[in-house]
Amino acid sequence: MQQWDVIIVGAGAAGLMCAITAAGRGRRVLVVDHANKAGKKILMSGGGRCNFTNYYIEPEKYLSHNPHYCKSALSRYTQWDFIALVDKHGIPYHEKTLGQLFCDNKSSDILNMLLTECDLHGATIRLKTTIHSVTSKDDGFILQSVQGQMHCQSLVIASGGLSIPTLGASGWGYQVAEQFGLRVYPTRAGLVPFTLQPEDKQRFAELSGVSLDSQVSCQDQSFREHMLFTHRGLSGPSMLQISSYWQPSDTLSINTCPERDLAEIIQQGQQQKANSQLKTLLGEYYPKRVLPAFFDTTLLEKPLKQLTPKDIKHISTTLQEWQIKPGGTEGYRTAEVTLGGVNCDDLSSKTMAAKTMENLYFIGEVVDVTGWLGGYNFQWAWSSGWCAGQYV
Fold first, then answer.
1. Who contacts 364 (Cβ-Cβ below 8 Å, separation ≥6)?
2. 292-329, pLDDT tens digit by residue?
3. Domains of the chain
């Protein structure tokens, strides 16, 4: 039987970071993954440029049933620590918006950096290795795999969530947690586009591909970024962000012109260019295709001087307090993250170890900690992986 100090299941962001840290302490580390390639999610993230962290990491930007849990890890291995590693490897990067850091070149720069560090510290990575069963023993764990039996003192579950099943995502980590008596919160897709009800889908079909700067609100949360109309619904950063807070049957409130007060703009227009049509005035603020989806031609072709206070109120409310109830989301197929997962109350926030099962650790997305869009989930992977790596 193969003997290891530490076996990490999952060669993604959290698993690789844990491997680097543990191997750096002189532990004999094996990382196994059923995929044919390490770090598949890293490679496809950020449109192939990997949004690897954020300048503004704060615990408040994470969703969890235990909002305090992530604080310890995020404060002990920070975005600055990871940025220092990126700098050490000479990887060029830039800030895009809102503190989001992306590689100048390709996501593979980050993956290659992690693999180089694993190599440097002597961690072994074994791909195409499916684990059939996990059994606990007095001196650790026995894993049955396609490549035979493996024994380890410490076992780390870094197998991710259910997002993007085409990359091999599965609920395996949750099953292991439940096998050893840990509680698991129900999961759902997060950072995911919305689908629309049939009548809304038809109404806004013409707008597919149109992007608007928007403020979207739901469940006492509000995000201002771009919203994108798709052939199936609503996407773009503002929609992905709010999707993590949205519950089925919730209505979204959307301001499609957050910079200006449209009622004021129309009233000024009535004084300065009274004969102009409404569509001409609003055309300065909206792409051509947008307005006919919200208003009929009669109203759009009215000269500004003919608009009543009631008309103005209707126009500004429709565009700045647009209420829409999504039909649902695109689900795990396109979701960037999985909400829910292993109950943080059953894990140590210092070590990531299970409280009721010695030498069993859970890190990354499998845990009930989900960040905002913009590098927050990668930072949780780095931080939680590093913390576990100190103790395994």
1. 10, 12, 13, 14, 15, 158, 160, 380, 381, 384, 385
2. 999 999 999 999 999 999 999 999 999 999 999 999 99
3. 2-189+337-389 (3.50.50.60), 193-329 (2.40.30.10)
